[in-house]
Sequence to fold (930 residues):
Amino acid sequence: MSETNVLEFETLQELLLQKRYAEFIQEIDKCNPVDAADLIALFPEDQVSRVFRLFKKDVAAEVFAELDPDLQELIIVHMTDREIGEMLEELYTDDAVDMLEEMPANVVKRIMKNATPQTREEINRFLAYPEESAGSVMTSEFIDLRKNMTCEEAIARIRRIGLDKETVYVAYVTDQKRVLEGVVVLKQLLFANPQDLIGDIMNENVLYATTHDDREKVANMISHYGIIALPIVDKEKRLVGLVTVDDALEVLETEATEDIEKMAAILPSDKPYLKTTVWETWKQRVPWLLLLMLTATFTSTIITKYEAAIGTYAILTAFFPMLMGTGGNAGGQTSVAIIRALSLGEVELKNVFRVFWKELRVGVLCGATLAVATFVKVMAIDFHFQMYSTSPTGQVQNNLIISLAICATVFSAIVVAKAVGTLLPLGAKKIGLDPAVMASPFITTIVDTVTLMIYFTIASALLGI
Amino acid sequence: MSETNVLEFETLQELLLQKRYAEFIQEIDKCNPVDAADLIALFPEDQVSRVFRLFKKDVAAEVFAELDPDLQELIIVHMTDREIGEMLEELYTDDAVDMLEEMPANVVKRIMKNATPQTREEINRFLAYPEESAGSVMTSEFIDLRKNMTCEEAIARIRRIGLDKETVYVAYVTDQKRVLEGVVVLKQLLFANPQDLIGDIMNENVLYATTHDDREKVANMISHYGIIALPIVDKEKRLVGLVTVDDALEVLETEATEDIEKMAAILPSDKPYLKTTVWETWKQRVPWLLLLMLTATFTSTIITKYEAAIGTYAILTAFFPMLMGTGGNAGGQTSVAIIRALSLGEVELKNVFRVFWKELRVGVLCGATLAVATFVKVMAIDFHFQMYSTSPTGQVQNNLIISLAICATVFSAIVVAKAVGTLLPLGAKKIGLDPAVMASPFITTIVDTVTLMIYFTIASALLGI
Fold:
């Protein structure tokens, strides 16, 4: 919400209060549908429906599609059956489907009752596509051409049927059975000879996806090839819809947010941050916190096994946070880099050996660097300035031994963390789980456990506990 | 790289080996420029330049723009001065600028020497825009119209000058001084009366950004409004370029990757995962590991202060990993949610109180849930099954006291972690730093320190140490 919008809102509310409807309509007419939707959301609930009715019919559907589901519901319940029917015809299939998925059952029933049989059948077909599939984000309003049309005829057809299509800048060539044969962009038609045949100028190497492909794959294709839209076909390669670049943008943003949330141990939500209630946020966050708290039992068990040693060399525990923090960070770096590369399609499962070999070497390099730095830091700073009191006997010797144990642990922990950080996301992908869940918090638990085991094994061997 | 590409590559290499150039050219002609670039990358270095020369001139520039900088350099050094000059004229300004930014100084010098004075001046102007600004991602190939043109004249102009424009689907209306006055999309022209004036059908409420705006802001606008392109103006509102939706997509993907890397304590890189060398990856990761290792000194110092207490109640240390893990996770959840919301524009600085109040309540809810769960778990499982040996005296009483200390710490640590996780990213944004750096690893260090302080304070008070 920009500053300008808030100002406009105050002007508009003033006009509404004074019942100066003509001026109000004139003002909102200048608005972009997206801004108009933002403006409507600022009005109090009991005015929303009244404000919405003032929009001209031809923009009303566009504005409606941009509204939050709760406002859509508010407006729908105030509509007559006839108005609902008209609105449904104006909406693009994908927007209609998006809306229906968020409405309570009784509202859905009422909406569907007022649809034409054709629209109802189409919506039902679209609603049946699996969540996160290409079918669930595509729309049915595309332009189809035939190979034997001339460019002139094609432009005439676009002029005739294009007004309510999602895009007029790309058209698909199909045969009598609606099988996809080629693609023509409006730019080609504009520069071709009017008598050229579509079959001659069309691109036969048409990129497409099927209704059951993952929506992220579709969005990545649109992004990779820099195209305006991607046609979606069924199992018989019959054209059934298209996904436009603005839908792809939305998918990619949503998927990136979901990945980020999962990596941070949050259950994903499709609502913007300020729109979720405290309870919803709690529900997104508490399951992972509980799970990770329970898994920390492993680390507790290990520490308990060495309780006696800790009683004598309490100084050992002073390095717990540093060791576990470093291991967790090192593992997190690797897993997050790989998760992101997987979702951008930069890394695939078949690259597992290449990735593992790379991470192993990076782990050795990082481990060696940190080990040296840690040794210098612990000996030169921590022990030199007597930051820690020490165990009863052999202070200097013990300091050296403890420093060495810490260095060895840092090195091993980083190498192990990088290995775990590589294998967990790739393993998850392999067995069909979402790699994003295998990020920092989960890896931290495993790496913490391994780090403590290494630390105590080395320390007790060196100190002769 | 898809399966098909690898197959095609083998066919193509075979044709090349047998010097069947005509067939080779026929094959690559069918390729999409993006796929062609992927294919070229598969050839050995010494063949790359030879393969590239086989592409037709009109697609060569498109393919070139899609290549990695190292391959672009390889091809450029094998080109004659004349070929370089021709290529430069064919490239869109943004692609030319992208390439020049990656070339070594001597190559840049040679390229610029072969540019026409006009192109050279334009490229120099584009190179001067700050990194990550709108100016640095825009291109200069747009279509401009005048208000007094008819739609017929406008379409004729698009046909005349549109062939080498980045997009023909949107045109901008400017006055004699090149000041932006309105926008017309090709769809409008297609459906308007040929004699209608551009000034009458254009949209005067044109969205735009200025050359010095952040490229992420530009990409977010394109995404928010679902538009094909956004015009970019200078300080006098003169039209100087446009950013298209495919460039916006790339910006958003890059920015999301950068944010994810920063959140995982990795210095961002603009190369894909498999393209970075082991040394580059080491350089991306080791600085943060070192920094976080050093900051762990705080936690060590706190633990050392309570060395005596740990000597007596070693069992206390068994819960270090769980307490610090929970605190770190809780803080990470909040900071990551806020960082993402900031970069999507869902949360702004002025929302700080609303966000803080929300996180405080979420913190209390999560803290209370975890505290109860921890108490039950520690009493019913850990102590019940004697998972830990215990201190010499008063076992049952001590168990209860230790459990209570742990619960109180879990509760306080979560609330504090949520507060720190809110304030750090928002504070970073306020003073102009990148909020993404204030994610999990950084917050973990702070939260670890605070958690340990709370834990020892409560435990020593309750146990009377």
